[in-house]
Design brief:
Helices cover 72% and strands 1% of the residues. It is globular, with a radius of gyration of 23 Å. The protein has 2 domains: 254 residues, no CATH class; 135 residues, no CATH class. The N and C termini lie far apart (64 Å). A two-stranded antiparallel sheet has the order 1-2. The chain has 461 residues and is mainly α.
Amino acid sequence: MVPGTALGVLAGDLVYTWLAVRLMRRTGRSDVTAMPFGIDTPTLFAMVFGVLGPVMLATGDPVLAWKVGMATTVAIGLVKLALAFGGDWARRVVPRAALLGSIAGVSILLIAFLPMLKIMRDPMVGLVALILLLLALFSGMRMPFGLPAAFASVLAGTLIFWGRSWLGFGPAGVIAPGPLRLALPWPTLGWLDALPETLPYLSIALPFALVTTIGGIDNTESAAAAGDEYRARDILLTEAATTVLAGCCGGVIQNTPYIGHPAYKAMGARAGYTLATGLVIGVGAATGALSLLIAVLPEAAIAPILVFIGLEITAQGFLATPPRHGAAVALTFVPVVAAVVLIESGGLFSALGTSPAALKGDVALGYQALLMLGNGFILTAVLWGWALAAIIDLRLALAGGLFAVASAATLVGMIHSPLATGGLFWPWAMPSALPAHVALAYGALGVVCWRAARRAARIST
């Protein structure tokens, strides 16, 4: 599973490197930064807990669970191939407040906040590395020997961690990597045998195809705002094709362009860093060397880079959009907050040996509201931000149409799914009455906006 998944990362990074070199040659600029690329973390959790785990528990067959994971990944890639051709149209139509706001919320709350918790678990390592990084990148302070800021930050944190361990001060570090052996990801059609068992799990996995497609469009717009204009179609076709490739070679997690292009640009990254990333991940996974790298580098020393990326992207979300759309950008953060709380509460439930099903009364209702707000959070953020930007610009008919889209999406669980898995359902087979209530509320908002638009049109004439 790991080499196949990493092969998708390698292939995508190679293509993104080539796209950056092509842009560099076309524009004559030497400061072009490649789009970051890797595996999609939300899909990782969905696949483990919503697909691989349930199949394994139901059948006791690890090979079948693996094949179902492969088939699901291939299906996600095929859906993304179909969606890729609408990427450039979406960038033209959707305002930056919605596109950049949605990834700004993800950046500050998922990419920056969660790693900050890792920093605070080991502040001697994490805070030193974070302060060094922020000093270098925001004040321009030169690192010793001219080292790149990110490298110097990670090196300082790693030296503190292992030096402290050697002196017996603080928690001891242990390097226990797995054995090094070659595991080449060969293509296979073995997943075709598992198609009947795969069908029930597509309702869980396919929403993530839509989410990463939207994320790819958002990231393309983010790169354009930073000065690097890529075609959304090229970015999306690459992530779709590499997802299919990964699935056909044993991978069970889809690929996606990463949030963080402006931050990588600020750290001095150009076209070569994606080439290096792809080679390290691809070769390291095929040989087992990644386990050694993970064992040597402490989490608290790596986390500051993610914090910086979160800060940079969040700042871009406000600075690169019209000031009047500031409230629309801020609104996109709300569904992401719910997603973060869901992630953290899941760990708490597990540690306490209980589950949300044990909640009663108002607490249970509150958790259900949290679940519905967090499921489909990226699409929800885009729709909310776009609708509020339209209202601010007095494009009330457009806002009404967006609320109608939100209503339809709620009726099938694309947003606000009440299922713990975030899965889809048919409108006539809803798991509860709550989606109908939310869809009705969206419909009412749409009617209000359309009536207001008609009244405004009559007054103006």
